[in-house]
Specification:
With 356 residues, the chain is α+β, with helices and mostly antiparallel strands. It has two domains: 221 residues, Rossmann fold (3-Layer(aba) Sandwich), CATH 3.40.50; 115 residues, no CATH class. Helices cover 23% and strands 36% of the residues. It has a six-stranded mixed β-sheet, with helices on both faces. The mean pLDDT is 90.
Length: 356
C-alpha cells in the first residue's frame, strides 16, 4: 500500500484560449486529508482536479505529490486514481473485470489481480459481487465499483469528480458517510469536487471555495461557515444577510460601526471612515429586544415565513430597508405591527467582518 502523500499546488494557472480557468492557485494539502473543492459551475474546481490527475497540463506553475514534481507526468504514471462523475465503467466487463482493469493494463499477474480485486470489493462492501454484470448494478453499487477500481491500484491520492451527483438524496447521504469512513480507514488523501454545499460540509477536513479560477476562502468547514472571510464565501456557503456600514471609531481593537440597523460593535482591524460589510448567519438572529450578549438590529417587517421542520425560515426587511433572513424556533411569531414590525436582535458573536 502506498503511503498518503502531501499535495502541493505551486502557483498553478490554466488558460483555454482567452479564458483563464485557473488563475495562480497555491495550495498545500497534508497527507491523509479529505479536501473538498467547492464552487459554482465555471469556478475552476474541475480543471484543478484534472491537473492533479494529469489529464490537463498547467499553463504555469507546478503540481507536486509527495514532494515529487509530477506537472508533466502522464496520468498512468502518477500515484493518483480518479473516480469520474459518470463512473466510466465498461458494460462488456463484469464487476471484477472493471475493478481489475487498471491492474491488467499494468501487467500485474492474474492471480495477484484476483486477490487484490477481491480485497478492494470487500473494502467497499461488495464482497462476492465480482461475477455480476455492470448492467445489474444499482447506482450506489456502481459508485462503489468505481471506488474499488480506483483503490485497487493503491494510489497515494484519490481524486473524485462529483461522484455522488447522479444519486438520489437518500443514497447520496449514505454514500457521503461511506466515503468518509473509507477515507479514514485508508488513511489516504482524497480530493473531492462538488457544487453541493451540504455534501462538502458533511465530508471535508479542508474545504476550498473557488470563484472565477481563484481560491476565495479555505479552511475547516466550521470556520468557513461561522467566520467566512469574503462576501462570496458568506453567500455561497449557506445563507447570510449582509449589512453595510462605516467605521465611526476604532479603539483597542473594538470597532463601532454605523449601519442602517443602528450602531454595532465588534472586534476588528479597521480605521475610522472605512466602509465595511458585515455578514450575519440566519441562526444568529433572534426575534425580540436585545438582551445581554446581543445587539439590536431594529425592527423587522416579515414578508414570508416557511416551516421547515426543525426551524422556521423567516425573511423580511428592517424598517430601514436591510434584508434579513432568520432561522427561528418552529413556533408562531409574535404579533407585530405592519408598520413598526417586530424587534430583532443578533448574538454579539454573530456579526462577521468581511474582507471585501
Amino acid at each position: 500500500m502506498q503511503a498518503a502523500a502531501e499535495l502541493t499546488l505551486d502557483a498553478v494557472s490554466c488558460r483555454y484560449g482567452e479564458v483563464m480557468a485557473v488563475d495562480d492557485v497555491s495550495l498545500t494539502v497534508p497527507s491523509g486529508t479529505y479536501v473538498v473543492l467547492l464552487g459554482p459551475s465555471g469556478s475552476g474546481k474541475t480543471t484543478l482536479l484534472s491537473m492533479l490527475g494529469g489529464f490537463t497540463t498547467p499553463t504555469l506553475g507546478r503540481v507536486l505529490i509527495g514532494g515529487q514534481d509530477v506537472t508533466h507526468v502522464p496520468p498512468a504514471q502518477r500515484p493518483t486514481a480518479t473516480v469520474f462523475q459518470d463512473y466510466a465503467l465498461f458494460p462488456h466487463l463484469d464487476v471484477a473485470g472493471n475493478v481489475g482493469f487498471g491492474l491488467s493494463v499494468r501487467g500485474v499477474p492474474a492471480a495477484q489481480i484476483a486477490q487484490r480485486v477481491s480485497a478492494a470489493l470487500d473494502r467497499v462492501g461488495l464482497s462476492g459481487y465480482g461475477s455480476r454484470a455492470i448492467s445489474a448494478a444499482s447506482g450506489g453499487q456502481r459508485q462503489r465499483i468505481a471506488l474499488a477500481r480506483a483503490l485497487v491500484t493503491e494510489p497515494s491520492l484519490l481524486l473524485l469528480d462529483e461522484p455522488l451527483g447522479a444519486l438520489d438524496l437518500s443514497l447520496r447521504r449514505q454514500m457521503q458517510d461511506e466515503l468518509r469512513r473509507l477515507q479514514r480507514a485508508e488513511g489516504r488523501s482524497f480530493v473531492h469536487v462538488t457544487h453541493d454545499q451540504e455534501e462538502a460540509m458533511a465530508i471535508a477536513d479542508l474545504m476550498v471555495i473557488m470563484n472565477r479560477g481563484r481560491i476565495e476562502d479555505m479552511g475547516p468547514p466550521t470556520r468557513l461557515y461561522e467566520r467566512p472571510r469574503t462576501r462570496f464565501a458568506a453567500q455561497f456557503l449557506g445563507e447570510s444577510s449582509i449589512i453595510e456600514g462605516r467605521v465611526s471609531s476604532a479603539e483597542a481593537g473594538w470597532l463601532q460601526i454605523d449601519t442602517p440597523c443602528g450602531r454595532l460593535a465588534l472586534m476588528g482591524n479597521r480605521t475610522p471612515g472605512d466602509a465595511v460589510s458585515l455578514a450575519v448567519r440566519p441562526e444568529a438572529l433572534r426575534v425580540g429586544f436585545a438582551t445581554q450578549g446581543e445587539q439590536s438590529l431594529g425592527r423587522l417587517r416579515v414578508e414570508h415565513s416557511v416551516y421547515q421542520g426543525s426551524f422556521l425560515r423567516v425573511a423580511g426587511h428592517t424598517t430601514t430597508g436591510v434584508r434579513l433572513l432568520a432561522k427561528l424556533p418552529p413556533q408562531p411569531l409574535p404579533a407585530g405591527d405592519d408598520v413598526e414590525g417586530i424587534a430583532v436582535s443578533v448574538r454579539a458573536d454573530g456579526l462577521v467582518l468581511l474582507e471585501d
